[in-house]
Amino acid sequence: MTILVTGASGNIGRHVVSGLVGAGQRVRAMTRTPGAGRLPHGTEVVYGDFDDPKTFDAVLEGIERVYLFSAATAGFVDRARAAGVGRFVVHSAAAAAFPNGDDPGDPGISALRRHLADERVGHRAIERLAEESGAEWTHVRMGLLAANALDWADPIRAGEPVRGPYGGAGEPLVHEADVAEVAVAALLTDAHIGAAYTLTGPAKVTQSEQVRTIGAAIGRPAAFEEITPEQARTEWYDPDNGMDDDVLDWLLELHAASSDGPSVLTPTSTYEQITGRPPRPFTRWAADHADDFR
């Protein structure tokens, strides 16, 4: 059996590939940057692009199961089924499990609620492609990734403080290896067919705690410098790189909502129920990524 991992060069995809190779599986890794490396020896790395149907046939030839990245298209899923794919494990997000209350087009909802509604609609669309394909499926819905802290690598490497608002804001950040481990189990066993799993870390970790934890992992102090939301809006505004006013509106609202109080996303016990082990804490993530901050 050959398993296709789409989005193979991403934070989750790389771990899915490693887990499958470690389990002795034949793996084809689809990526738009096949020369980027960082995938295990023995992986068949191929160029593929969801926006370029001409790449689909070579990518899907001989494939039986697919880890389906969230950028997938209906055309790709249809071609996969025609090629003989019988199982999809969908790379999704926790927002897909949120109640279907908000309409993203409603001008009366807040920026954060609109963002979560957009996320829900987008990820449910990919999930439905798998559900309606006639293949077996599992949805792996991740919460906010601990890997978002990599955005702080430059100031921490330079010995500068991480500047941001709401130092007490945080979420139960999930280690990408936890997400990949569940995805690998869903690809290799029949125990998870038809399941939709929401995965988080074990507990809320505030921004200030994250920075201190990274400092401990690299062996020198790292500091969080609190600034006002207005300062953050000015410093972060960068529409050429996706940080426009709409994004800043929901991002600042997200931080405010979880500042010095409960996280927006409630921690789940899903990972422990599946594996029998507690999810990896942020301390483990920081240790695993210490070289990224040195």
Describe the structure.
There is one protein chain. With 294 residues, this protein is of the alpha/beta class. It has a domain at 2-145 and 174-200 and 265-280: NAD(P)-binding Rossmann-like Domain (Rossmann fold, 3-Layer(aba) Sandwich), CATH 3.40.50. It has twelve helices and eleven strands. The protein has helices at 11-22, 56-60, 74-82, 111-131, 153-157, 176-188, 207-218, 229-236, 245-257, 270-275, 282-288, 290-293, and strands spanning 2-6, 26-31, 44-47, 63-68, 87-93, 136-142, 162-164, 170-171, 196-199, 205-206, 224-226. It has a seven-stranded parallel β-sheet, sandwiched between helices. Helix 1 (11-22) packs across helix 6, helix 4 crosses helix 9 (245-257) and helix 7 (207-218) crosses helix 11.
Kindly state the number of beta strands.
Answer: 11
Secondary structure: helix percent: 25-40%
Globally, the shape reads globular
> Do you know the CATH architecture of the domain at 2-145 and 174-200 and 265-280?
3-Layer(aba) Sandwich
Question: Which key phrases capture this entry?
Answer:
Rossmann fold; 39% helix; seven-stranded parallel sheet; two-stranded parallel ribbon; alpha/beta; 294 residues; NAD(P)-bd_dom_sf
Tell me briefly what this model is:
This protein has 294 residues and is an alpha/beta fold. The protein is 39% helix and 17% strand. The chain has a domain at 2-145 and 174-200 and 265-280: NAD(P)-binding Rossmann-like Domain (Rossmann fold), CATH 3.40.50.720.
